[in-house]
Design brief:
It is built from five helices and three strands, in the order H-E-E-E-H-H-H-H. The chain is an alpha+beta fold. The protein has a single domain, classed as Sufe protein. Chain: A (Alpha-Beta Complex), CATH 3.90.1010. Strand 2 and strand 3 form a beta hairpin. It binds FE2/S2 (inorganic) cluster (2 copies). This is Iron-sulfur cluster assembly scaffold protein IscU.
Length: 128
Amino acid sequence: MAYSDKVVDHYENPRNVGSFDKGDESIGTGMVGAPACGDVMKLQIKVNPQTGVIEDARFKTYGCGSAIASSSLVTEWVKGKTLDQAAQLKNSQIAEELALPPVKIHCSILAEDAIKAAVEDYKKKHAH
Ligand code: FES
Ligand code: FES
């Protein structure tokens, strides 16, 4: 199966690969696995506590090209967004942008789940 140009681009030049310190108050971490294939994705956001705006993001993904491209794309998209805007991101937007075929849709769902989990984690840290 051929990957789309955008998937190849993100796969060859992944944006924002890496990690933030999980214990940092300004960081939200989402770690999710895909039951369909066993792949794992970690997505982190760095939030401005004053404004609630996401200033930076990182990812580490152990998975296929589509999973890597999906997480790379999401780290670009969420920068400058509020937590609520980021949590509303839909996997269908990712799949459309990357022209993912039906068998690779679950890779984009992984990215949606990961960003939602990262937002939740941040909110939990600040729910006191
Ligand atoms: Fe797991 Fe894609 S099937 S790498
Ligand atoms: Fe499983 Fe892409 S995350 S095939």
